[in-house]
Amino acid sequence: MSDALINGLAGAGGGIIAQLLTYPLQTVNTRQQTDRDQKRKDQHSSTLDQMYQVVKQEGWTRLYGGLTPSLVGTAASQGVYYYFYQIFRSKAEITALERRKRGLGDGTVGMFSSLMVAALSGCVNVLLTNPIWVVVTRMQTHRKKSQQTHSISSDDQVIVEVEAPPFGTNLAIQELYEESGLWGFWKGVLPTLIMVSNPSLQFMLYETLLKKLKQKRALSKNANKGVTALEIFLLGALAKLGATVVTYPLLVVKARLQAKQVIDGDKKRQYKGTADAIMKMIRYEGITGCYRGMSTKIVQSVLAAAVLFMIKEELVNGARWLLTKDAMNRARSKAS
After folding, report:
1. pTM: predicted TM-score of the whole model, two decimal places
2. For domain 3-142+183-329, which CATH number applies: 2.40.10.10, 3.40.50.150, 1.50.40.10, 3.40.120.10?
3. DSSP letters of 134-170?
């Protein structure tokens, strides 16, 4: 099994576990990002209060709206990303070694090369998986409503509320296709492509911090001690925090474009594209509108990234150990 495949599968596994643990926060955050109703009472309430309101008004299942396609998307995204990341990283390492032979550099992959590797991997990931995330956004922002039926008798009219059918993956796909056609599945792709700077910054910070930690460990008395799972967790959290703060406005724009567009004559709510969304957000909501729900996102994304890094590293180490053990057993069998 290739190292790229091991990293791809480990990334998918870590991503799924992180997604399951943090999904309710992600649902609330997506609603915060796409909420443009200044009069909504719960707009400025805390994340926990908003989660409570969702449960109270729509039921527990709404906190996990879109979970199935989201898990598929997470597995696909993490698998694609780590697979191509490892391929591009290996090529960058070979290039760095060749440069050292020519007397250029120290043979290690520099910060700029790490940034480019992460960016290329992110672009491939976005182009292949964007349709999944548009559907997930639609399902997360869908608010459960009751349908009203009218029963008319000879004396009066009675209004009876009937629960609307569940808004599942098929309905979300159908609604999106009827609204925008095939191109609708790539809504928000431009800000999402720009958003590859987020994982790029994240991995650049993560690998820089990890490299410094290993160098410091090599010079200390604990030179033989490897990096622990807890240290990986903390490094992943710190790296994601820095990347999220810088790129958050693009995440809000992406969510606004991917959510169901409001067609009520109010031009403030209708976006023609990325540039139009940014201009209207700043004009009608101010700079704060670009950072709506950021505190929730920081908690969710930092926790998810930290868990992902920790689980991925453990899975990679476990897979390599099993492969090494299997190779040693085969060698012993041949020798005997």
Report:
1. 0.64
2. 1.50.40.10
3. HHHHHHHHPPP-EEEEEEE-SS-EEEEEEEPPP--HH
214-223 confidence digits (pLDDT tens) = 888 777 766 6
DSSP secondary structure letters along 215-261: HHHHHSTTTT----HHHHHHHHHHHHHHHHHHHHHHHHHHHHHHSPP
Instruction: Enter the tokens of residue 285.
Output: 């909501």
What digits encode the pLDDT tens for the residues 126-172? 998 999 989 988 888 887 665 545 554 545 555 444 555 667 888 88
pLDDT tens figures, 13-43:
887 888 888 888 888 888 888 876 655 555 5
- Residue 39 in tokens: 């009069």
The residue ranges of every structural domain in the chain are: 3-142+183-329
- Report how far apart the first and last C-alpha atoms of the chain are (Å, whole number): 25
Residue of 35, 26, 59, 34 lying closest to 166 (CA atoms): 59
Please report the sign of the dihedral spanned by the C-alpha atoms of residue 200, residue 202, residue 204, residue 207: negative
Structure tokens at 122: 């992110």
* Cα–Cα dist 64/137, whole Å: 12
- 147 has which bridge partners? 162
Distance CA 67, CA 64 (A): 5
